[in-house]
Design a protein that fits this description.
82% of the residues lie in helices and 0% in strands. The chain has 325 residues and is mostly helical.
């Protein structure tokens, strides 16, 4: 499908340009260790909290709690797969930093960036309201759930399970760390502001949105500065596993119940598009900011984006042929 190819190019090419800028900056000596340290701190302390606040503040929470079956199913499935992959990846990867990146990238997808244009191509721009509600619901789960997941893995870095008394103690450490997490604090503030109906003045909202928009650009320039071909070869197994889970395993598994329930058309598409798109661009900065393996996350994002051009074409073609969407 030509639309899928164009969407993939629109996602990939800007990211590649940002990477090239980072690589060029490193090789010319303009961007070195001081830049990496400063940008890491800038992302963690300011940009990521602003991004999280901006996303939750703009969400239509009233629409999300209106009782949409596909939205409820998508939220439950997302949380269930978070827990399942946290368990399964323990047997695949021993490094908790790498597991954090794999879990994050295996579930968090480009739902709005990729899913909405695909939905619009299928149903038209005036008939995707139901799908938008589901895509927005899963974004909120991503922003809250994955900060908790990444905080759990971060706690494993600072205190081993043997020393701390097992997983329960690690979980307690993660919860204590969550209370100090600036991203979660920003999410909590955004929820309060959203639910209360308070309007952020435009002279504040515009800078917040603009600064939040810098996150992807700076994150991928930083990724270019840190890019190491030797690490890419060493991470190939984890990249392939996470990409396969994101693009093939997850869409297949989450589709089973909706098909058995008789969901077709937009009801099925709204669920399917949440789980079948490539790993979200924001996986890299979020993983990096919370001390996961940012390099691995970036590699999975790039690999899944490239592969999704083929997998999305095959999925949509097959579902169209079967009359499901």
């Amino acid at each position: 499908m030509l639309e899928n190819f164009i969407i993939t190019c629109n996602i990939m090419l800007p990211l590649i340009i940002y990477l090239i800028v980072g690589v060029t900056g490193r090789r010319t000596g303009m961007l070195g260790e001081d830049f990496k340290t400063a940008i890491n701190k800038f992302l963690n302390k300011l940009l990521m909290p602003m991004t999280a606040f901006n996303s939750i503040y703009k969400a239509d929470l009233k629409a999300l709690v209106s009782g949409s079956g596909p939205a409820e199913y998508t939220i439950i499935a997302t949380v269930a797969f978070m827990l399942l992959l946290m368990f399964v990846y323990r047997f695949i990867e021993k490094d908790s930093r790498k597991r954090a990146a794999m879990v994050h990238c295996s579930i968090r997808g480009n739902s709005m960036l990729y899913g909405l244009p695909v939905a619009t191509a299928i149903y038209g721009p005036d008939d995707v309201g139901e799908i938008v509600v589901v895509l927005a619901a899963v974004l909120i789960v991503y922003n809250i759930g994955f900060v908790l997941v990444l905080e759990y893995y971060r706690s494993l870095l600072h205190r081993s399970e043997e020393q701390s008394g097992g997983t329960l103690a690690s979980l307690k450490g993660a919860l204590a760390s969550c209370a100090r997490n600036r991203i979660l604090q920003a999410i909590a503030l955004a929820l309060i502001v959203n639910i209360s109906g308070v309007k952020v003045p435009s002279f504040l909202q515009e800078p917040i949105s603009d600064i939040a928009g810098m996150t992807v650009v700076l994150s991928f320039i930083l990724m270019g500065v840190r890019l190491d071909v030797n690490n890419l070869r060493g991470n190939s197994r984890d990249v392939l596993i996470a990409s396969a889970v994101k693009l093939v395993v997850m869409p297949a598994m989450v589709s089973i119940l909706p098909l058995l329930w008789g969901w077709r058309g937009k009801a099925f598409s709204s669920v399917f598009l949440c789980f079948s798109t490539s790993s979200a661009v924001s996986c890299f900065p979020f993983t990096e900011a919370l001390e996961g393996d940012g390099e691995l996350a970036g590699e999975i994002v790039m690999a899944s984006a490239v592969l999704s051009g083929l997998t999305m074409f095959l999925w949509i073609f097959g579902l169209k042929q079967l009359g499901i969407i």
